[in-house]
């Protein structure tokens, strides 16, 4: 007996509404006026038969009874012909059928979701999330002590991770759907997973590397010095927090230096070296630089 639920890509005994939605989706794909493949006319014929048998409550009830009876007869037939020696083969076949059914479920769910979010929007959304996340990390990389910069950096990492995850999920889903009718690369799941990890590492690594180079470049070629006040209360765990002023604006910065290793003009002041283009790019001045400044 022909299972029209399978033809529509639905679970057995799905509702009339699900049948109608599945029919509309598939007829748009396989109707001979749209699909020029050799099988389009045959598939359309079976889709119309499925609609005739399942699109009304009365017809569906009659068909469901026939389907249940057919399954019972098939179970009885299999029980009579069952051979213990075929256990291993039957298990492999069930696994194979289960994998195929899973792929069809993924395909059906994906095709339904395309009505709400087309492919172009999905791709653009993933790209925008990735760019937004990296931009947040980059623009708040040089932390203003006591601000929300650190939280914004974490948020940027999270948004970047979400963008990559959605993009990888989209690629994986398309490969799974393609594997139903076409040959796909061997172990594509593993390759996609490795690519996922590499993209995450490469994206964050690039942003961190560019910002570190930017700091080095500006502090080497476009730097200035300022007198900074040491905040002893906040200076903990081998790091020193300083307050300094550039062009009338006050900055708080945590230096990667211990209180004992920085230059002190008196008990509460030190010298910091900052980048003119962005005073948050800042480090403690060396003893050689202090000598040159005459301090």
Written description of the protein model:
This protein has 295 residues and is of the alpha+beta class. It folds into three domains: 79 residues, DnaJ domain (Helix Hairpins, Orthogonal Bundle), CATH 1.10.287.110; 99 residues; 72 residues, OB fold (Dihydrolipoamide Acetyltransferase, E2P). The protein is 61% helix and 11% strand. It has nine helices and five strands. The protein has a five-stranded antiparallel beta sheet with strand order 3-2-1-4-5, covered by helices on one side. A hairpin with an 8-residue loop joins strand 1 and strand 2. Helix 2 packs antiparallel against helix 3 and helix 6 packs antiparallel against helix 7. It is rod-shaped, with a radius of gyration of 33 Å. It starts with a helix and ends with a helix. The model has no long low-confidence stretch (mean pLDDT 87).
Summarize the structure.
This protein has 295 residues and is α+β, with helices and mostly antiparallel strands. 61% of the residues lie in helices and 11% in strands. The protein contains 9 helices and 5 strands.
Distance between the termini: 95 Å
Q: Please give the oligomerization state of what you see.
A: single chain
For the largest beta sheet, what order do the strands appear in spatially?
A: 3-2-1-4-5
Instruction: Please report the number of helical segments.
Output: 9
Instruction: Give a quick account of the main beta sheet: strands, pairing sense, barrel closure.
Output: 5 strands, antiparallel
- Uncertain segments: none
How much is the average pLDDT? 87
| Helical/strand content category | alpha+beta
Give the percentage of residues in beta strands. Answer: 5-15%
Please indicate the count of domains.
3
What share of the residues lie within helices?
55-70%
């Amino acid at each position: 007996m022909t299972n029209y639920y399978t033809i529509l890509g639905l679970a057995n005994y799905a509702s009339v509404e699900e049948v109608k939605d599945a029919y509309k989706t598939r007829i748009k794909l396989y109707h001979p006026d749209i699909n020029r493949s050799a099988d389009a006319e045959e598939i359309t014929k079976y889709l119309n038969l499925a609609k005739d048998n399942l699109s009304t409550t009365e017809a569906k009830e009659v068909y469901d009874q026939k389907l249940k009876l057919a399954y019972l007869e098939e179970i009885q037939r299999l029980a009579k012909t069952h051979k213990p020696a075929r256990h291993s083969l039957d298990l492999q076949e069930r696994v194979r059928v289960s994998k195929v059914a899973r792929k069809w479920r993924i395909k059906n769910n994906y095709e339904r979701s395309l009505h709400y979010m087309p492919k172009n929007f999905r791709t653009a959304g993933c790209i925008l999330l990735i760019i937004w996340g990296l931009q947040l990390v980059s623009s708040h990389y040089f932390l203003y002590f006591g601000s929300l910069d650190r939280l914004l950096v974490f948020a940027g990492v999270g948004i970047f991770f979400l963008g990559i995850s959605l993009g990888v999920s989209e690629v994986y889903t398309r490969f799974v759907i393609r594997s139903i009718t076409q040959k796909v690369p061997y172990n594509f799941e593993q390759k996609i997973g490795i690519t996922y990890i590499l993209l995450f590492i490469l994206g964050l690594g690039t942003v961190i590397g560019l910002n570190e180079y930017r700091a080095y470049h500006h502090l080497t070629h476009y730097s200035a010095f300022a007198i900074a006040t040491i905040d002893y209360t906040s200076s903990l765990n081998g790091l020193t927090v300083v307050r300094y002023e550039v062009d009338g604006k006050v900055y708080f910065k945590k230096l990667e230096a211990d209180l004992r290793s920085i230059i002190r003009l008196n008990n509460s002041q030190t010298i910091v070296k900052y980048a003119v283009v962005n005073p948050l790019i800042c480090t403690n001045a060396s003893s050689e630089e202090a000598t040159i400044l005459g301090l």
